[in-house]
Amino acid sequence: MIGNNRYSIWGIKDSGEDITTEILNILNNANSFIIVGGYNFTFKTAGYSFFSILKNKVRQGVPVLMIIPSNLTGYNNNQPAIINFCFTNRIGLILNGNNHSKWLMTENDLYYGSSNFTDTSWKHRIEVVTIHRHNHIYGSWKRRTLLDFRLFIQREISKINRRPTMAAIPGLIANTIAVWNRINPLVLRLNPSIEKVILTLRNYGEVETLLNKNVEEWFQLYDMKVFKRIYEYNANIFKKYNDLCEFAYLNIYNETTESSEIINEEIINEYNFLHSEFVETIERATSELRDNKILFSEINFQTLEENLNILNKIEINISNSDNYE
Questions:
Q1: Can you tell me the distance from the alpha carbon of 248 to that of 250, in angstroms, rounded to the nearest whole number?
Q2: Among 183, 274, 186, 176, which Cα is nearest to 233's?
Q3: How confident is the model at residue 57 (pLDDT cuts 50, 70, 90)?
Q4: Which of 4, 87, 102, 197 is the most core-located residue (most Cβ within 10 A)?
């Protein structure tokens, strides 16, 4: 990496170069606000220090906001734990399933690059890194860059439903069932022709987007008990779909496939078994969601209102910063 640590450093972070101190210093130097945009986080090693600092900053009165995807799948998926940590420690949260950006912004500093907020990325991975001490930088470039991030943050905050009511519940239930019904025909059984398998694999992005979007809509009506159940429904459906697609890619269709038909009965039967499990998971979730009146009988909007208050404070503080002038 090149540059001057007082002003800016940027470039390739080689394996073995450690930016842990630089990232944690950005948090420690914040006094007005902290905003984290990320995709992959960990509570382990340096990640523990990262979240500990965020928690301490909130105690000191500094509003903190995280913008993350719902992330319904992955090995040892800890996204539900991240979400719970944020609400338990009064850290503002916005779920956006399209977010794959990694950045960190305060009134003093700005990081953006390829590095996840993990010990592995900070210490061992080769990453693209940019850190600007914008409190020490002057000129139109700084103003335009910070304004770009600020406008994105304000757009994200403006999308949040600010008037949650119990009347929204029936509509959310109906919409969730409609989403699951829409996904069902995107995932097809296998006959000897592999065309339906190809379509199933090509629909991966659409299925993932629909499920993530559904989780985000329930998040806007956040109740810990309800959100956890909805998250589990969607995560279970997506896992079954992932299992099906992984089997199909390894055994039926990928970039090296030449045959247009499968004659191996074991492969056909296993694929269709996984497909049946996927369909049954949707049917079970639909039945439980439609019939579970107790789950929705006592919605508590307190956590959501606290989150909205944090978002409002973030919006005020970034607007009051003089770094856009």
A1: 6
A2: 176
A3: very high
A4: 197
The tokens describing 227, both together, are 């959100």
Q: Report the C-alpha gap between 186 and 178 in whole angstroms.
A: 13
Cα-based distances in Å from 189 to 117, 154, 186, 250:
39, 44, 10, 16
CA distances from 128 to 108, 116, 125, 280 (A): 21, 11, 10, 44
pLDDT tens for 278-295 read 999 999 999 999 888 777
Amino acid identity of residue 182, one-letter, is R
What top-level class would CATH report for the domain 2-161+303-324? alpha beta
Cβ neighbours of residue 113 closer than 8 Å, sequence gap 6 or more: 13, 102, 103, 127, 128, 129, 130
Nearest CA to 72 out of 172, 212, 180 is that of 212
DSSP 117: B
SS3 content of the chain, % helix, strand, coil (to 5): 55, 10, 30
Mapping DSSP to helix (H, G, I), strand (E, B) and coil, where does residue 298 land? coil
On the 0-12 / 13-18 / 19+ scale of CB atoms within 10 A, 27 is buried
pLDDT in tens, 122-133: 999 999 999 998
- CA 204 to the chain's CA centroid: 17
Output phi, psi for 42, to 5 deg: -145, 150
Residues 16, 22, 27, 28: is their CA dihedral positive or negative? positive
Q: What are the phi and psi torsion angles at 24 (to 5°)? A: -65, -30
Using one digit for the tens of pLDDT, what is the confidence trace for 105-153? 999 999 999 999 988 999 999 999 999 988 766 667 778 888 899 999 9
